[in-house]
């Protein structure tokens, strides 16, 4: 189990100003503040005024299974996926909204498990896996499910839920299921399947897909997570509908729905992004194009510095792919750099002690300490500070 300080938000009361001091930069967490200057430039385009008499009811759409989902958000989500082409959102799919994809992950564990099972169902993910999965799974010591570690080592003849993150957090790899047994359950976490991070090769069409506002647009504070689930009129309907209802029940019991202010804000922002994607005159302000440029610039600079480390540090290579969204062959620019130190070195320790850079070490992700994860979603100032520190480190390696 990953200790609380290793969660994505390690100290809830921390403010951005304390993340970065002259001596230390904290790149251990994935707080997506790099998009802040972009949204500042957007000025009033996403401004909303909500008066005190609006949005008062618990209910958004009482005839919908997901009664707390506002129809504005439902439409905006479908439209953006349609424009980007990263997920199938036909009318026969329904959408459930949660307080961040973190709450939906819990809701899914609850919905995919059963109190009638003799043993808690095993939750697995191929290492390196997102460090919050073990913590979230084990947190309540549930009798419904248990964390069972690396999917590559799962050899028990038992029911399981495999979590597949693609592109993966922490290493940016494109992934599919590892354990392919009949009856196996799967959650596809597609938090990073957006054009600024990866090539959009096809519309994802899995049974359960998670997306999050946090990593799509950078608005992590609004806590809007999404889950898409096909809704087939077949025998599976009974089962699927039961799963969907159980998820809604979970969100009802844990938070009685999702803030309508957040939902409206998300609909407005997603709508502005979709407008810009569809208007060729607004090509330059297009959020994803901006995000791609930003991420690809950062990756280029980081690779240049890492290359000068005499082989002490290295980064994964990603194949180019044809991106249906941009219509070009493009590189992947993951949200995290999966940095590796040469054999025998603890990469997190090296970066902290030699460079004053806080990162999250490989053991949090189920692999060796030679790896560490560095957030690429930080502010420009933090990113430049990291480059400076790494360059100075290179200087010491080269005897300068
Ligand atoms: N899944 C993955 C793979 C993530 O990296 C994160 C955030 N770091 C989340 C889910 C959680 O996102 P949210 O802010 O929607 O809870």
UniProtKB/TrEMBL annotation:
InterPro entries the UniProt entry points to: Alliinase_C, Alliinase_N_sf, Ethylene_sulfur-biosynth, PyrdxlP-dep_Trfase, PyrdxlP-dep_Trfase_major, PyrdxlP-dep_Trfase_small
Entry's Gene Ontology molecular function annotations: carbon-sulfur lyase activity; transaminase activity
Example GO biological process: amino acid metabolic process
Domain Alliinase C-terminal per the UniProt entry, residue ranges: 25-392
Keyword match Transferase: yes
Family: Belongs to the alliinase family.
Record-given protein name: Tryptophan aminotransferase-related protein 2
Protein source organism: Hibiscus syriacus
């Amino acid at each position: 189990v990953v200790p609380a300080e290793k969660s994505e938000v390690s100290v809830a009361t921390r403010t951005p100003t304390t993340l970065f001091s002259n001596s230390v930069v904290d790149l251990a967490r994935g707080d997506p503040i790099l998009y802040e200057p972009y949204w500042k430039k957007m000025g009033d385009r996403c401004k909303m005024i909500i008066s005190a008499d609006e949005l008062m009811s618990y209910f958004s759409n009482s005839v919908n299974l997901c009664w707390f989902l506002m129809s504005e958000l439902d439409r905006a989500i479908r439209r953006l996926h349609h424009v980007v082409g990263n997920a199938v959102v036909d009318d026969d799919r329904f959408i459930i909204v949660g307080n961040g994809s973190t709450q939906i992950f819990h809701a899914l564990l609850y919905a995919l498990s059963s109190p009638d099972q003799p043993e808690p169902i095993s939750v697995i993910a191929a290492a390196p896996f997102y460090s919050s999965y073990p913590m979230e799974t084990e947190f309540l010591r549930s009798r419904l499910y248990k964390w069972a570690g690396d999917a590559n080592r799962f050899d028990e003849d038992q029911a399981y839920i495999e979590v597949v993150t693609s592109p993966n957090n922490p290493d940016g790899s494109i992934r599919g299921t590892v354990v392919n047994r009949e009856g196996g359950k799967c959650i596809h976490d597609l938090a990073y399947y957006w054009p600024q991070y990866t090539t959009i090769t096809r519309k994802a069409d899995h049974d359960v897909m998670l997306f999050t506002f946090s990593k799509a647009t950078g608005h992590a504070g609004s806590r809007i997570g999404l889950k898409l689930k096909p809704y087939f009129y077949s025998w599976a309907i009974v089962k699927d509908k039961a799963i969907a209802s159980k998820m809604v029940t979970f969100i009802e019991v844990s938070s009685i729905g999702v803030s309508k202010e957040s939902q409206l804000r998300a609909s407005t922002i997603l709508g502005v992004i979709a407008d810009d994607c569809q208007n060729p005159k607004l090509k330059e302000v297009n959020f994803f194009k901006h995000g791609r440029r930003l991420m690809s610039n950062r990756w280029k600079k980081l690779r240049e510095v890492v290359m000068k480390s005499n082989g002490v540090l290295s980064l994964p290579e990603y194949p180019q792919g044809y991106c249906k969204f941009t219509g070009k062959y493009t590189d992947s620019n993951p949200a995290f750099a999966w940095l590796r130190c040469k054999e025998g070195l603890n990469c997190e320790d090296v970066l902290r002690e030699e460079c004053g850079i806080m990162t999250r070490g490989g053991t949090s992700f189920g692999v060796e300490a030679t790896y560490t994860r560095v957030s690429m979603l930080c502010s420009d100032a933090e990113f430049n500070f990291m480059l400076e520190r790494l360059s100075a480190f290179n200087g010491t390696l080269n005897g300068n």
